[in-house]
Amino acid sequence: MLRRQVLALGSLLLSAVTLGGWTFFRGKDSSPLLLSARDDSDGKHYAVGYRLDGTRVFATAVGQRCHDIINHPQLPIALFVARRPGTESYLIDLRDGRLLQTIASQPNRHFYGHAVIHKSGEWLYATENDTTDPGRGVLGVYRFEGERLNYSGEISTHGIGPHQVSWLPDGETLVVANGGIRTEAESRVEMNLDAMQPSLVLMHRDGTLLSKENLNQQMNSVRHLAIASDGTVVASQQFMGDAHETAELLAIKRPGEAFQAFPVAEHQLQAMNHYTASVAIHSELRLVALTAPRANRFFIWDLDTAAVRLDAPLPDCAGVGAVKDGFVVTSGQGRCRFYDCRQQALLAKPLELPAGLWDNHLHLV
Is the dihedral of CA 183, 185, 189, 191 positive or negative? Predict the structure, then answer.
């Protein structure tokens, strides 16, 4: 009996594959697994996993709409995080879609849609709202015990309305996009547009503040993040100001430099309709990609020179993620696509994934 258990464990370990720092379980099919939240035509919510060839691995019904997804660095599990102001996040087995645990937010807290897991696999940090002081940002701290999460406490994000949280390459420094907007419990209504306080924060995972920076426009809400392997941080924004204003909807913080606007052409910024959804970096190809669903456009720039590599129509473009040779993009209304970025002329290929109803984020493992 013991010998069979050892052999089974060895076989299981051999099936674990590591790519880009993540360890995950794959079967005979070695293609990436795309994770995302998705609705159906009746408005029901699902946590889904698909291979890029269109093969459905799972579609698990969940009670609340989810936003971003983060997978465990050693175990075949992932957390589908509730979309603001959701109060339930879902721990899913990536092999079969089994719902392992529903994580409820603490009293007077709700999730903001994003989380990260420490490289040790022991700790998870989720952006949350303190509704007793609406908008006061906290990171809920949770500890893994096997395939379950237990609440451990919270630390401040040193800002208001935290949205996405990510790691710098050292795996110990957290990057937080504080959106700067106050909202009450069970509400997406902005309370303080005339006094927004968006910021980009670097902090140690024990809560120690390392830096806090702002962009020039007070009503430019810092929302989403992408981190390059060299520590370059790119942030995408959603502008809450007047329609006639042009906003810096993409910003960058290179190591040792200030947080500042990424040089995007004014006509592209105007076309974005003050709204970006998802941003991704391809560290090996030195590219940054951005979805602008209200503009129905998808963009790719050279990360180092800011040269435009792609400015293409894509209906209600949603999530974007880097794969070996380029980017995968989902759409809320149309077909999902793969963009091969290896040559100067980028090639677009439709994917055999279901069309439409995808959330604004995807995660590839």
Answer: negative
Q: Distance between CA atoms of 338 and 326, rounded to whole angstroms?
A: 7
Tokens of 206: 């024990």
pLDDT in tens, 178-200: 999 887 666 667 767 777 999 99
Max Cα-Cα span within the chain:
72
Helix (H, G, I), strand (E, B) or coil at 53: coil
Question: Contact 332/353 with Cβ under 8 angstroms?
Answer: no
pLDDT digits (tens, 9 = 90+) for 309-341: 999 999 999 999 999 999 999 999 989 999 999
Instruction: Residues 36-214: name the CATH superfamily.
Output: YVTN repeat-like/Quinoprotein amine dehydrogenase (2.130.10.10)
* Cα torsion through 264, 265, 266, 271, rounded to 10: -80
3-state class of 22 per DSSP?
strand
**Three-class DSSP category at 347:** strand
Each domain of the chain, given as residue ranges in start order, spans: 36-214
Residue type, position 158, single letter = H
CA distance 184 to 176: 20
Q: Which residue has the tokens 């994580």?
A: 103
The tokens describing 72, both together, are 């465990």
pTM of the model: 0.91
Instruction: Beginning with the edge strand found earlier in the chain, give each strand of the sheet holding 109-117 in spatial order.
Output: 109-117, 123-130, 136-145, 148-160
- The CA angle 209-128-283, to the nearest 5 degrees, is 65
